[in-house]
Sequence to fold (1049 residues):
Amino acid sequence: MSALARRRFLGATGALLLGGTMAGCGGSGSGAGGDSESITLTMTAWGGDIDRKTYKQRLDMASKKYPHIEGTVQLTPGDYLQKLTTAIAGGAGPDLLEIADHVPAFASKNQIRPLDDYIEQSGMDLTEMFGDRTPKIFQYEGKQYGLPDRSGAMVVYYNRKMFDAAEVEYPSKEWTWDDLLNAAKKLTIREGGEVKQWGFATITWWPYWMTFMYQNGGRVLDDDNRPVINSPENVEAMEWYNDLAWKHKVSPTLRDFANYGEGVGPDQLFAQGKLAMEITGFWNIAAANSVDGLDWDIAPLWHGKEAATSAFFTGLAISANTKHPDEVWKVIEYMVSEEGQRPIIDNGEDAPANIKVQESDAFLKPVWAKREVNMKAFAESSDFIFIPPITVHWNEMLKVCGDNIQLMMNNEVTPKKALDTIQTELERIMGRN
Amino acid sequence: MGEGVDVRVRSVAPMVEKRPTAKPWWTQRRREALWFYIMASPWIAGFLLFMGGPLVASLYLSFTDYDLLTPPEWVGLDNYVRMFTDDPRFWKVLRNTTVYTLLVVPITTVLSVWLAALLHKPLKGMRVFRTIVYVPALVPIVASAMLFSWVLAPDAGLLNRTLALVGIDGPAWLLDETWVIPGLVMMSVWGVGTGVVLLLAGMQGIPPELLEAATIDGANPRQRFFQITLPMLSPVILFNVIMGLIGTFQVFSQVYILTGGGPNDASMMLVPYIFEEAFRNFRMGYASALSWLLFLIIMTCTAIVFKTSSRWVFYESEVRR
Amino acid sequence: MSLLAQDRRSRPVGSGSRLDAAATYAILTVVSAVLAAPFLFMVSIALSSDATVQKAAFTLIPREFHVENFVRVMTSDAQMARWILNSLIIVAFACVGQTFVSAMVAFAFARLRAPGRGLLFGILLATMMVPIEVTIIPQFILFRHLGWIDTLLPLVVPSLFGSAYNIFLMRQFTARIPRELDEAAQVDGLGYFGLLVRIILPLMKPVLVAVGVFSFAWAWGWFFGPLIYLNTESKFPLALGVQFLSGTTTNAQTPPYNLVMVGALFLTVPMLLVYFFSQKYIYQVNLGAGSAGIR
Fold:
């Protein structure tokens, strides 16, 4: 075939393919429906296969209740914030969004709607449904911008076999910091200079160290959102926290973690049977279950001067740009009801935010559980979840804290110095735009 | 030269017998210029359609405060001023990126030439070796990163254990602010494959007659390599160097996945920083300004390399003029 | 001295002595071991059990052989076939567009003089120097106005206009071809297009194939563009669909690395095979600069 003929052939094929792909062209956003009555809503979310399945299921259930509404879920297989902000900037945003720590950012920029009117009209009692802490996480400047959807407190996972062998009592929420330290000491076993078993694990991830700060009565930001991170309570808490690895040697240092290999953190060490206690969330249940022969259970966290634990939560919000806010409200109202939350626990996706569901038998003895686990720990912990200091500058704040806490945990700076540096940085960041 | 000789023989005859209609110089030049634009038009059109507008728009954005969710707000040169006077992270990031690039590009260039020379030998089984060399470019960075951080582990890692055998106490590499960038540089070695593929393709274009003639004249392999092969490869090497500069200045995934920019920004590079500012901190305007600064830096370095390239790059098509 | 390539009486240049060959093999084996390690690691992870993933207890040499992971991935989503089809479409356009169109443009830049050529070349290079993170927003808006969001169009159409990388690459290769061929062709009344198609392109076969292979690998593995422009899962290419495997409910969770690597293998192996078998065309025995002749 001569070159010219080849090009013509390719051109024709190209046109055919183009035609074919254009046929798949569809509009995005809401309002694309067959008859004038039915409405299609798009929802954005992040996560894995199980989240995709669960959200789709719940949207379908909502459709059964409201036949004229159909929902599709777009699960982003990459960076959620990047894809979402790009879509919104391009005028192609969703109607309904899964939302977590972006509430202040999105609310302050008017991307999500305040829900107070809807809540009042529907007579929903958020405190009754979700406890008095969790709804506050989705508030901004006094208004409610999201409904809690999934919310699991961080609890302590412990290895029962190790506790039995060392004759230590299992953790409970009565424990104090001293109890924790004593137990960790007894549970750390060394053989021939090498650690066979660690009592506890400390890392730079914020739910860990921030919990200790709150438990000691300290805070990161005050009520006016001004940084107070280098308060004496916090310095004391961080010294105690850092001592676990460096003074009492009951926790691996960051260097020790690096030696275990990439991707090895407390969850992995626990699964390997090298760690007696760790703080983690609901998601680790499936992980721990997949290891044969691991005898473990969970309990609410200990307390310091106060009881506090952090939580992993996501909620649902209505986009400010949607053409069908009322319909979106109907859908999310359904999704946080007991019926709408069932798939979350039936699929083992997460812990549900709705307290009644958290306390129901279906959650306490889930269908998928291979063994008895103290699921009550989640409901018990929800009373003392601390509200994280989320603002528009959340990501920047985490970066500054993480960098300096890491220096502290590598023993390169003292806790006081680290916190002072963070304080100065935070003042600078939060002082400007 | 096979049929090439025929070409020459054939073309001489018509010149003598059938004098072509002499076209005046300017029409010939015009014709050439016209054809240039015709043939380059697909790219020109593509650029105008898909790149031109967005490039101008992103330049405009660099003079605004833009959080992606609300409309951009004009702030003039504020972003650029802030970059140089009010952003302590910027200088660190700039320094890191420059050091990293100035280490990686020369090292990979030399390595790729050396490997290509080895792989070019007509020995059996070269096909397998050549494929293996290219493989790392295809493996997802996640796998390479996981493996490499194991290699670089402070005490249990392969590298430090090997160093210990010769009595060197290796640093904590990825956890150490001084050594994290050298660690990343070592990882970049895995990317030599693409350059090698191109060099090998380039080596195919070297007429063996040249090398044979040289051998007959008594040149040893080393002389043949440095005096014939290397100059003939120089256009490809130039390509590898330029693309290496452009690509390495914009390094992203390796940093993001392996170190996250840490410890304490010691390995933070420009593009991860831009990504963070744009999509985490809601400062797309500032990110755009950073991008255009990066552009200027790359442009300058590239221009320097091009300017000096006439000294060492040898295009055969220009010789017989 | 005979200049015919086929008429070789001397040994092929560069083969050297046996010692040289042995040393070469030794060095290449070591280098290959280092470079092949990530791939081996990938395979090892792909064959690991879920428990091993949770413990992050991977080994370089596979110790477990859970081949059922491959089945799990294939049955976890019925869309795999669809995804592969989408990838093939994107790849077809990329290979065609970026080889032939880029070759033509490269030829123009390399051998045709014109006012403004230098400037245009500078612009060409410049387009590669601005990170995509900031041009993606205006580009997205552009495609939105065209109504191309959630279609394959933004991923496919730009390829038809050539790509800066390939144009630059092929320009470097084209510039090495002797000028006399241009004049010979002209005198024979070929015109520039004929020169390109009849003489230059055949001479560039090795680099054309190389560019084809690169384009295939790039387009097959590209997931950033699809991530931003596509919303409907059935339109995803394989590279993006496979990302679903690594998603987790919370960021704190360990991704199921074994399944992730299986997905990655599905992505990587085709590219490997394409490269392996195309070597015949890239590394054919050299026929000399002028041997293509004029038909």
Remarks:
- Residues 155-310+389-430 of chain A form a domain with the D-Maltodextrin-Binding Protein; domain 2 fold (CATH 3.40.190.10).
